[in-house]
Design goal:
By secondary structure, the chain is an alpha/beta fold. The protein has eight helices and six strands, in the order ααβββααβαβααβα. The strands form two sheets. The protein has a four-stranded parallel sheet, with helices on both faces. It has a two-stranded antiparallel ribbon with strand order 1-2. α5 runs parallel beside α7. The chain is globular.
Amino acid sequence: MEAYRKRVKSLSYHAPLPPLLYVKLRHTLPSASLSCNRGAGAGMIHEKLSVFVSYSHDDDQKWLDRIRVHLARLIREGRVDLWDDTRIKAGDRWRDEIRTALARARVAVLLISADFYASDFIAKDELPPLLEAERERGLVILGVHINYSSFDSDRTLSEYQTINPPSKPVESLATKAEQEEVFNRLRRRIEELLDPSNP
């Protein structure tokens, strides 16, 4: 035990964490989701970033899939927890699951489209708590324009800078490469938010 204490005491900032110490940290920091990278920067503890995706089921599912692809590495590394309503299982109280996910989210990705604005559920059940969380605890709202919509006349959402301009929604872009670049910009912004020094 004494040898173990000496080893822990001598750990540098970038040294890999012993499994027992990592377990102790999880118990002493219950409010944080911790991950321990074993690549570059091994031994650093990251708080997992909870990302909530709000989208219309009518036409935007395929774009949700592209977001999953672009964030796959960060999810695999345990740095991002991407939540959308496809994670709700049969028998779950779906409204409670969505409320819980909204409450813990630190980032909200909005797939903005005409169908997004047509959804009563998004308007009444998702956007109000997300906007409240932005005002009260600094949740970051990242909009991605999927197709042309009434965004410009939305006095609330139009105050937030979006990943791509409303004049160039994803579905209007001529090539797949241009579409992929939009989701790559989203990934870069989320990766920036993983650094606590970034606003």
